[in-house]
Amino acid sequence: MHHMKHLKTNILRVGLFLTLLLSAAVSFAQVKIGNNPTVINPNAVLDVESASKGILFPRLPLTATTNPSPLTAHVAGMQVYNTASGTDVEPGIYYNDGTKWVRVGAEADEVFIYGPGAPTGSCTTGTIYVDTLEDSNTEGNTWSCVAGAWVDYVPKPAPNTTPFYLAKSTVDAKGNKSSAIYRRGFVGLGRVTNPRASLHTEGLVLITRNGQTHAGLGNGTHNYNGIVNYYNTTTRNAYIAVQNNSASPNLYLSKDRASSGDVFVRFAMTSGGTTQTAGSITRTTGWNISYNTTSDGRLKENVKTTHYGIRDLMKVGVMDYNYISDKKKEGQTGFIAQELYKIYPEAVTVGGKDPKVNPWTVDYSKVTPLLVKAIQDQQKEIESLKTKLAEKDVFSAQEVAALKDLLRKQVAEKAASAK
Fold first, then answer.
1. What is the Cβ-side half-sphere exposure of residue 115, based on CA atoms within 13 angstroms?
2. Are the CB atoms for 261 and 290 separated by under 8 Å?
3. Domain boundary among 29, 55, 81
């Protein structure tokens, strides 16, 4: 009996304490828990203070960031400690933004890595992986590491601001995915983190039909059209390839009101840190185009008359032929590179083992110096023959005159004897 009386007394005391606490909370709209209960931060509704203890959040299993379960709905501001590993969640503190769960500190933990093809094997939580293998079936796809395994990446909510404006305005594009957009600063694509141009990218820029790769556009092994701007970050090779199966040109170069000497194409080479123009394609007078190779005497040394001449030209075989791959077997006239190389190698570029990939080639324009030298040699011979013939004609005239004088003398002598 005494025990029950004591228990009732304690219950009354606890009830009175809670009543006073609630009354104070209602009166002051503030609650302090822990050390220094009378000192409350004036900006806090709930002030928790301890030098040796922490706050323990509700511990519950989430299944996915988009699923409110075990809650019945998404509630903005709700905060819990997740104990389970699900589709895209892992153990940790999460808050709800009203539409989904967001892991606290996830942004700071993320580390981006790149690799060829889809990721395999175990991984470190917080790692974001991007497939950068060209021609891969999953090129450009992204995965995130959750609880040591790779899962499809679920992007965070779109930011309130973006680097882009809606076209013809200064309104931020935000999440707009259909209108035209623009930006005033530079844009870096791929692995470019320090863009130096309006659009700066490493790798490959492809303009062709949807779903098509760049393979074959540079060597004509496929029948689709397109444009490739390519830069290999490993070998530092760069090229532009254009394939066009129609009758229209692959490349247009035009100038409005071009003047004589205006350059359409300039070729330059760098050696030892010095850049030098190697040639150009320019407009001359009227509608004429000039294909130029640099030949400035100020850039040359060890200049002397060539040892090539008409005798070398006479050894060059000029052949009629057709190409094996030409189904129409259309006749051609020209040189055989290997044969010309034996006589005049300056006009020949030696090829490789596979003639379809790396054939021997002839620069027909480089045969011109040999032709000029042969004509000069031939002209010297002609002039020499003319001189000899002229000398022979003079000698014959002198002989005729002498014979005429001799005949006149003989006739005069006979006439004198007759008298």
1. 11
2. no
3. 55
